[in-house]
Every structure is written in structure tokens, then in C-alpha cells.
Amino acid sequence: MTAKVAYLVFDVESVADGDLISRVRYPGANLSPQEAIATYQDELVEQRGTTFIPHTFQVPVAVVIAKVAPNLELIDLVSLDEPEFRPHVITEHFWRGWEMYRHPRWVTFNGRTFDIPLMELAAFRYGLSLPGWFKNDGYRSPRNRYNTDCHLDLQDVLTNFGAARCNGGLNLVAQMLGKPGKMGLTGDQVQQQHDEGNKTAISDYCRCDVLDTYFVFLRTQVLTGGCTLEREQELVQLAKEWIEQRAESCEAYRAYLDNWNDWENPWESVQLAS
Questions:
Q1: Is the pTM of the predicted complex or chain greater than 0.85?
Q2: How many structural domains are present in the chain?
Q3: Phi and psi of 254, rounded to 5°?
Q4: Residue 269 falls within a domain, yes or no?
Q5: 213-270 pLDDT, tens per residue?
Q6: Where does 95-141 show beta strands of DSSP type E?
Q7: 150 in a structural domain
């Protein structure tokens, strides 16, 4: 019997659409896609101090999703349309999977401002129909910013929907829990990796981000009363065993385990002392 999927923990890696940038931002300049991207990035560095191109000019090239059971156990982790990594197929699998599993809860870190808007715009670009996601049901609407029953953005949980800032992002909070955080590849290197044909490396990077997000999700469940700390530690151990069982055939999992640190539970020493 197939386990029920209650949560889909995911992360998106994307690259700039140089042809679109050339046509929209530099009409008549006859810039190649690569030239358009480089020109736009130079402008962004001068104006904002970053090479990050807005999501409106990007397409997904890797989406990794962790399927999580109602009891918060990790069921599976998949990279969509691997090894082809075609943006239109990734987008279709992403949304049709959500429909197939009967609308489980999305779980992200900063997904409300980046990952979900990017995947919505990709659906628009590729002509997909998503009435279940775009339905207007007042405050119960799936896209309502404060409807965490449909989409739980962990950054929103930790910042009270942007009232505070989470400087350091996912990397910071993952390392608070002893998890690897960023290893080797970083988000600003994805474009170069893609241009060089290293699509699997991007997917592997995405896998590790999803594992970090899953462990942060578990701790936020402790924080908000969704489970006890003892149960969370059991779930972490189960997930570690899941990763270990697949590490031989997946370089990303081997690297994740190599950089794994067990969270130091301060309450254990208190209990021993008493």
C-alpha cells in the first residue's frame, strides 16, 4: 500500500532565460543569450550589488521534492525529470504531482517569494491549467500569503511573515541543527554549472537543500507544537538511516553524510545532572 503523502518539501534551482532577457531588456541590440545575461548581471551589480536575476526571467532546471507522511516520516525524495531536466516537463510534473497526491501541503524555505512564484510563472509560460491552485476562496485560497495550511514557508514561521529578518537563511538554521547547510556549490554558481552542462551537479545541490529544509521543518514542528523534541529526534535518526541506505548510489547523499553533525541536545546533560 502506498503511503499517504501529507507534505511536499521542495526546492527549485533555476537559470536565466537569456533569449527572453535579450528580447525584453535589449530589443534591437542583437545580443546573444549569453551576452544578454552578462549585460544584465553587470547592471544588477552596479545597481544592487548582486548578480541575481529576478525570477521573472528564470526557468526551473532542477526541482527536488521530499514526500513526507502525516506522521512526519520521510517517505521518498525525487528529482523531477532526471536526467533530462527539461524545464517544461519539470513544471508539469511539479504541479501534476501536487494534484495526484490530492493537494498536500507545500513546505519551503523562502518559497513564498521565490520558488512558488517561479513555478507559477513557469506554468503560465508552458500553458498549464491549475484551477485547484488558483481558485479564489477568500482567506482559504491556496495562494493566500497567510494560509499556511496549503503552503508552509519556514522562513515566514521564523520571521513572523517578514516582521524580522533571518540573516543567514537556510544555511544558518540548518547548521544550528548540526546539518551540513551549503556545501561546495552555491546558488549564484548554478547558471555557470548549467551552461557547462553539469545538470546533475545542480540536482545534487538541490537534493541537499531539500534535506536541510526537511530537518528545519521537523524542528519548526517542535517549535509550534506539532511534535515533541523526542519524536523529532527519532524522525531525524530515521531520515539519516534512509540517506545511508541510498548513499552508495548517490554522491549527494554521501557528501551530506560526510558533513553531518549530530545536534547537541543540551537537555540530556540537564537530565543526567538531575
A1: yes
A2: 1
A3: -65, -45
A4: no
A5: 999 999 999 999 999 999 999 999 999 999 999 999 999 999 999 999 999 999 987 6
A6: 105-108
A7: yes
DSSP string, 155-181: HHHHHTTTTS--TTHHHHHHHHTT---
Phi-psi category of residue 30: left, alpha or beta, with phi > 0 → left and psi -120 to 50 → alpha: left
How far is CA 199 from each of CA 9, 21, 84, 115, 204, rounded to the nearest angstrom?
21, 22, 8, 18, 9
Enclosing domain of residue 58: 7-264
Establish if 163 belongs to a structural domain: yes
CB atoms within 10 A of CB 195: 14
Structural Rg of the chain based on CA atoms: 20
Q: Does residue 274 lie within any of the structural domains?
A: no
- Pairwise CA distance, residues 125 & 143, whole Å: 19
- Residue position matching grid coordinates 546533475: 200
What's the CATH number where 141 sits?
3.30.420.10
Contact 207, 213 (CB under 8 A): no
3-state secondary structure of 82: coil
Place of cell 554521501: 254
Q: What letter represents residue 183's amino acid?
A: M
